[in-house]
């Protein structure tokens, strides 16, 4: 393991789910545990980076070596924290499972049952954090994740192009891999190449991923 793969670089990692509030006691969330992102943050610190970890609501301790942790709840809060932290960063790794939608309004009081009638929530789309950073003239090297159940390569290549990012780490979810599991397997895609990282526990996989990120960063940014 190349201990200095990210030596001297400022790296921002986002991790975990986002929670989009419906009312004071309810929210829309997802099953991301944050484990993969926290493992990536730890591996990046081990590889010599100065790491800022932007964490959604998770029950995980800050990994050793991580310089700064910013806890957020919603996608909007995550975007604001990432934009600030990434302003002078070399690399942004978006490992968070950002909610695609949020309720248009957050009810100020707990919603009551409708007496047998249904309840309709209107959702609006959240901003895409990676695409927002990619649109800037001065932007960090951008790494995204893709979790799909099928057609992994096509989705990953589409994500590279559509979001305008440098690297996509793709994993197949289901079949005991991905969310809420200790193991994962990844295929890393960039504009003109790919590398398969076989099934391993998330910390080992994170170390391999960080090595690839270091190699690709230096290939593109010198
Ligand atoms: O578009 P999709 O959610 O499939 O892409 C996943 C990747 O995009 C992840 O790296 C995730 O962190 C990032 N993402 C983001 N902002 C969003 C949604 C996803 O940065 N609003």
Automatic annotation (TrEMBL):
<dbReference type="GO" id="GO:0010181">
    <property type="term" value="F:FMN binding"/>
</dbReference>
<feature type="binding site">
    <location>
        <position position="145"/>
    </location>
    <ligand>
        <name>CTP</name>
    </ligand>
</feature>
<feature type="binding site">
    <location>
        <position position="100"/>
    </location>
    <ligand>
        <name>CTP</name>
    </ligand>
</feature>
<dbReference type="GO" id="GO:0004633">
    <property type="term" value="F:phosphopantothenoylcysteine decarboxylase activity"/>
</dbReference>
<keyword id="KW-0288">FMN</keyword>
<feature type="binding site">
    <location>
        <position position="159"/>
    </location>
    <ligand>
        <name>CTP</name>
    </ligand>
</feature>
<keyword id="KW-0460">Magnesium</keyword>
<comment type="similarity">
    <text>In the N-terminal section; belongs to the HFCD (homo-oligomeric flavin containing Cys decarboxylase) superfamily.</text>
</comment>
<keyword id="KW-0210">Decarboxylase</keyword>
<feature type="binding site">
    <location>
        <position position="110"/>
    </location>
    <ligand>
        <name>CTP</name>
    </ligand>
</feature>
<dbReference type="GO" id="GO:0071513">
    <property type="term" value="C:phosphopantothenoylcysteine decarboxylase complex"/>
</dbReference>
<keyword id="KW-0456">Lyase</keyword>
<keyword id="KW-0479">Metal-binding</keyword>
<dbReference type="GO" id="GO:0046872">
    <property type="term" value="F:metal ion binding"/>
</dbReference>
<keyword id="KW-0436">Ligase</keyword>
<dbReference type="GO" id="GO:0004632">
    <property type="term" value="F:phosphopantothenate--cysteine ligase activity"/>
</dbReference>
<dbReference type="GO" id="GO:0015937">
    <property type="term" value="P:coenzyme A biosynthetic process"/>
</dbReference>
<comment type="function">
    <text>Catalyzes two sequential steps in the biosynthesis of coenzyme A. In the first step cysteine is conjugated to 4'-phosphopantothenate to form 4-phosphopantothenoylcysteine. In the second step the latter compound is decarboxylated to form 4'-phosphopantotheine.</text>
</comment>
<feature type="region of interest" description="Phosphopantothenate--cysteine ligase">
    <location>
        <begin position="11"/>
        <end position="222"/>
    </location>
</feature>
<dbReference type="GO" id="GO:0015941">
    <property type="term" value="P:pantothenate catabolic process"/>
</dbReference>
<feature type="domain" description="DNA/pantothenate metabolism flavoprotein C-terminal">
    <location>
        <begin position="6"/>
        <end position="214"/>
    </location>
</feature>
<protein>
    <recommendedName>
        <fullName>Coenzyme A biosynthesis bifunctional protein CoaBC</fullName>
        <ecNumber>4.1.1.36</ecNumber>
        <ecNumber>6.3.2.5</ecNumber>
    </recommendedName>
</protein>
<feature type="binding site">
    <location>
        <begin position="127"/>
        <end position="130"/>
    </location>
    <ligand>
        <name>CTP</name>
    </ligand>
</feature>
<feature type="binding site">
    <location>
        <position position="163"/>
    </location>
    <ligand>
        <name>CTP</name>
    </ligand>
</feature>
<comment type="pathway">
    <text>Cofactor biosynthesis; coenzyme A biosynthesis; CoA from (R)-pantothenate: step 3/5.</text>
</comment>
<comment type="similarity">
    <text>In the C-terminal section; belongs to the PPC synthetase family.</text>
</comment>
<keyword id="KW-0511">Multifunctional enzyme</keyword>
<comment type="pathway">
    <text>Cofactor biosynthesis; coenzyme A biosynthesis; CoA from (R)-pantothenate: step 2/5.</text>
</comment>
<keyword id="KW-0285">Flavoprotein</keyword>
<comment type="function">
    <text>Catalyzes two steps in the biosynthesis of coenzyme A. In the first step cysteine is conjugated to 4'-phosphopantothenate to form 4-phosphopantothenoylcysteine, in the latter compound is decarboxylated to form 4'-phosphopantotheine.</text>
</comment>
């Amino acid at each position: 393991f190349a201990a200095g793969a990210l030596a001297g670089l400022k790296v921002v990692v986002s991790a975990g789910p986002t929670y989009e509030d419906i009312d004071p006691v309810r929210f829309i969330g997802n099953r991301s545990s944050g484990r993969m992102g926290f493992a990536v943050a730890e591996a990046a610190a081990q590889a010599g980076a100065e790491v800022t970890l932007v964490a959604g609501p998770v029950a995980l301790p800050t990994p050793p070596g991580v310089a700064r942790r910013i806890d957020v709840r919603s996608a909007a809060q995550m975007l604001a924290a990432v934009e600030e932290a990434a302003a002078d960063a070399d690399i942004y790794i978006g490992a968070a499972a950002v909610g695609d939608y949020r309720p248009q309004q957050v009810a100020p009081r707990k919603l009551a049952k409708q007496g047998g009638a249904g309840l309709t929530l209107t959702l609006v789309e959240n901003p895409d954090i990676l695409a927002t950073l990619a649109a800037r003239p001065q932007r960090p090297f951008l790494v995204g994740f893709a979790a799909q159940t099928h057609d992994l390569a096509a989705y990953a290549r589409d994500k590279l192009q559509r979001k305008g990012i440098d690297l996509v780490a793709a994993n197949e979810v289901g079949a005991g891999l991905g969310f809420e599991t200790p193991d994962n397997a990844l295929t890393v895609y960039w504009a003109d190449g790919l590398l398969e990282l076989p099934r391993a526990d998330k910390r080992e996989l994170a170390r391999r991923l960080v090595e690839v990120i270091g190699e690709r960063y230096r290939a593109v940014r010198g």
